[in-house]
Write a structure and sequence with these properties.
The strands form two sheets. A six-stranded mixed beta sheet has the order 5-10-9-8-6-7. Strands 3-2-1-4 form a four-stranded mixed beta sheet. The radius of gyration is 22 Å and the shape is globular. A hairpin with a 2-residue loop joins strand 6 (about 215-220) and strand 7. The protein contains ten helices and ten strands. It has about 290 residues and is an alpha/beta fold. The chain folds into two domains: about 5-120, Beta Polymerase, domain 2 (2-Layer Sandwich), CATH 3.30.460.10; about 140-280, no CATH class. Keywords: Transferase.
């Protein structure tokens, strides 16, 4: 997009922040910074990357836990209030080391919107600036990098480079589950409207399509039935740190990671298999 259009999008976001700064959830916002190609001065940035720093209160903790339980994005309340359905602004709320992004602060609590606008327009343009390099990227991560934190991409890349794992991309198909026991397991855990239910059913169906009894599966932190479970699946990278142990100590055959379960979008997954279990057992996934 043209740089002028990008500036206009940020102006609208700042207006929304100013209008709602005394109301939850925008009352939690402490700082807004810009990074990426726009911050480096690109004349035609793909979009505007904004790093949002927030506080935490009891309401946020309750909201966060509820969203995770139902497979929803807890930060959607911020996105709705700040940018609504507008395209062109990418909001980032959690990042391991923000300094890596070289962010430029636009607004902090106590600043006026006019001050933020001045800082925004003071960022110099650079016709030679392009997109920022994407770290720890593989073809299997394409289109999923917004949902797979860089730290998770790094541990998977490292394990792949060392020959500890195999990695491939899958899109799970939807359909019925033949095993009544496995179906009831999913029904007991999640509401039918939950994206996690949709992801769970798709994983169970995938196992059945591969000739695997789903009762031998460990589904998002819980055994479906049997105490020995060579087949593992997780959602939203919640249990990704368990991969070395699960695939080396329990005769693990594969790990299916549903990267970002939703109610309607394709269920994109990473299939992780053990290759060198000695090396895998020695790796620290964080």
């Amino acid at each position: 997009m043209e740089r002028e259009k990008a500036i206009a999008l940020v102006d609208v976001m700042l207006d929304h922040l100013d209008a709602g700064k005394t109301e939850w959830p925008l009352s939690l916002v402490r700082e807004v910074a810009v990074f990426g190609s726009f911050a480096r001065g690109a004349v035609q940035p793909k979009d505007v990357d904004l790093l949002i720093t927030r506080d935490t209160d009891e309401r946020w903790v309750s909201h966060f836990v509820t969203c995770l339980s139902y497979g929803r994005d807890p930060y959607s309340v911020f996105r709705q209030e700040l940018i609504g359905r507008r395209r062109g602004c990418q909001l980032v709320f959690e990042y391991g080391d923000p300094a890596e992004l070289s962010p430029i602060v636009l607004w902090r609590v106590g600043d006026s919107v006019e001050t933020a606008r001045q800082r925004l327009r003071a960022i110099p343009t650079d016709p030679t600036a392009g997109r920022a390099p994407r770290h720890a990227m593989l073809p299997e991560f394409e289109g999923l990098e917004d949902w797979i934190p860089r730290a998770d991409r790094e541990v998977l890349c490292n394990a792949l480079d060392k020959g500890a794992i195999g990695l491939e991309r899958l899109t799970l198909e939807e359909g019925s589950v033949r095993s009544r026991f496995a179906m009831e397991h999913a029904e007991d855990r999640w509401a039918p409207s939950s994206p996690l239910f949709r992801a769970g059913i798709a994983v169970l169906r995938y196992w059945e399509s591969c000739g695997v009894n789903p009762r031998l599966g460990h589904l998002h932190g819980v055994d479906v039935d049997k105490p020995v479970t060579p087949y593992f699946a997780g959602f939203n990278q919640r249990y990704l740190r368990s991969i070395p142990r699960c695939l080396t100590e329990f005769g693990g055959k594969e790990w299916i990671e549903v990267v970002h379960p939703t109610k309607t979008r394709p269920l994109e997954c990473l299939r992780i298999t053990p290759r060198d279990t000695d090396v895998l057992a020695s790796l620290d996934f964080g």
